[in-house]
Sequence to fold (176 residues):
Amino acid sequence: MHAENLLAARRQKDDFFQRHPQSPLTPEQQAHFNGLRYYDPNPDLDIIVTLEPLDDDAPVPIQTTTGDLRHYRRFGRFSFTVDGQQATLTIYEADYGFFLPFVDAGAGTETYPAGRYLEPEYLSDNRFHVDFNLAYNPYCAYSPAWSCPITPAENRLSVHIRAGEKLPEGDWVQKT
Fold:
């Protein structure tokens, strides 16, 4: 996504969080909300990838932050390079589309410990547009009242993904 469009989308998201009745924040949180934190746009992490298809159609149970299970299907795996280091992630398929949860090396200090999410765009022929600048925190990062899938072990990276949303900070953040 072009940097100007990305920054505009981030402003819209902040406005939604602060003002909209369907915001994941409580009214008290909205009153003190001062914006989400993001990495600067990083064009090196806006990539087109080709998946290695996975033949396993068995549903994969993924535990949520509230202890429930949600089921996904492993769609495929791709490798890419971040700061000179190789990384591999699995894209899952859900009823609503494609899902890419991941945890990076900054988890707990720079990024949300349970992981961030993306909905990669399917292009064709096992190719996807994966823009890590669009990586976002699940709603459970803002309140323990939300139930969010916990990133599976296969999508826990030893490299930093310095793109997208950072760990929330401020008086408005509920400690989970």
